[in-house]
Amino acid sequence: MAAWRERLAGVRGVLLDISGVLYDGGAGGGVPIAGSVEAVARLKRSPLKVRLCTNESQKSRRELVGLLRRLGFSVSEGEVSAPAPAACQILRARGLRPHLLIHEEGFSFQNMNKAFQVLMELENPVLISLGKGRYYKETSGLMLDVGAYMKALEYACGIEAEVVGKPSPEFFKSALQEMGVEAHQAIMIGDDIVCDVGGAQRCGMQALQVRTGKFRPSDEQHPEVQANGYVDNLAEAVDLLLQHMDA
Amino acid sequence: MATRRALKAVLVDLSGTLHVEDAAVPGAQEALKRLRGAPVMIKFVTNTTKESKQDLLKRLKKLEFDISEDEIFTSLTAARNLVEAKQVRPMLLIDDRALPDFKGIQTEDPNAVVIGLAPEHFHYPALNQAFRLLLDGAPLIAIHKARYYKRKDGLALGPGPFVTGLEYATDTKATVVGKPEKTFFLEALRGTGCEPEEAIMIGDDCRDDVGGAQNAGMLGILVKTGKYRAADEEKINPPPYLTCESFPHAVDHILQHLL
Description:
The structure holds two protein chains of two kinds.
Chain A: H1 2-8, E1 13-16, E2 23-26, E3 29-32, H2 36-45, E4 49-53, H3 61-70, E5 80-81, H4 83-94, H5 109-121, E6 128-130, E7 135-138, E8 141-144, H6 146-157, E9 162-164, H7 169-179, E10 186-190, H8 193-202, E11 206-210, E12 229-231, H9 234-244
Chain B: E1 9-12, E2 19-20, E3 23-24, H1 28-36, E4 41-46, H2 53-62, E5 72-74, H3 75-86, E6 90-93, E7 112-115, H4 124-135, E8 140-142, E9 148-151, E10 154-157, H5 159-170, E11 175-176, H6 182-189, E12 199-203, H7 206-215, E13 219-223, E14 242-244, H8 247-257
Parallel strand pairs in B: 1-4, 1-12, 4-5, 6-7, 7-8, 8-11, 12-13, 13-14
Antiparallel strand pairs in B: 2-3, 9-10
Helix pairs in contact in B: 1-8, 4-5
């Protein structure tokens, strides 16, 4: 497709979503998506700058990088933008003392109810959500994501959450800054049509959706978001990038 | 207002209208007997997500109300009727005490989700199973969408937040079956041969009982018992057809003016 050259020639930096693009989580940690280990290695050998941009909030950045390395990816903590460190910055800056509804605690009724009661007792309730994804993919199938629980608490308390992580523009901007690349020179590759693709495009980036992870065929006819391209997997995206980028 | 036809049916709310917790509203049993002497059909309609008809009936009998099971129509009945009309096999996210109202309904290999107030079922694995069914196109039927309710230990999340979360995750809308939905009132009259214009509703909840009924084409009488608070009648437009002290007054009005 000649159009690919037009789209990809000026790209200087690549933001990669992790879950559903590099690997699918599941029992025992997960499995790499076919071709992705090699694709990441090829990207990192190329002149393109690369950064990983995830909404992962079920494990720490260190655990996530440890898992990726066990799966064969050569990545380091400093290359990963994740919502928890970003949320910590916000909490410190505003002097907030959070009630933590995070993975160790689990989305049980009791824990949700505790968070609800905390919010209802605050004069100015602040709800910070690490991402607002609808669902994600595990090897066993699609899984409800934090967005559903964020919406539940918003509805119960009549408030609006502050989202840290994708698709928040601040999160993408800080990832771009870390990479030292302007939005118009960057491309996001992800499996979430709304959070990855829509979010990156609103920041002035291009974005590709991979047909792995949580991808569903109906995403290609999404009523609001149209990716700059759809590829079968990360390996195909990297092939196209390396083929069409300016030498 | 459109011309009204002769009154054929009277819908009566239970909690707050016939009784407040474990005490009958004074004079309510005798008033019900007087109403039974008139040529009208009587239905008892209520929003409940955890009390089966049997449970409701037991309580009413104890308070010496003369009521039979087939006169009771609840939000659970409405959900069951919808499940039968759609010919689906629901996953039931409802309180175990409500299960008798779904007796005989196929729930193996589910292709629909019915959700009520069921804290013990609102854990991740169950909600995730519901989520996967919805993503495959199963309809979501909600008994109601209350945000929260009052418990002895403070406020607690109602079913509404969990319905909303599932709606968001799957980009679908739930069908809500309880009061004040128009379909609830129409469903309560189904099979009676009686039109909404021939029915009147008596209840203590201005929006859910009176507003809902009037929105469905019925008349609504607001009683000042149960959850009634001063000036509640100003909450809806058009206002209630009538606001009166209690159920016996409402019955007297019907007997004197509407028959």
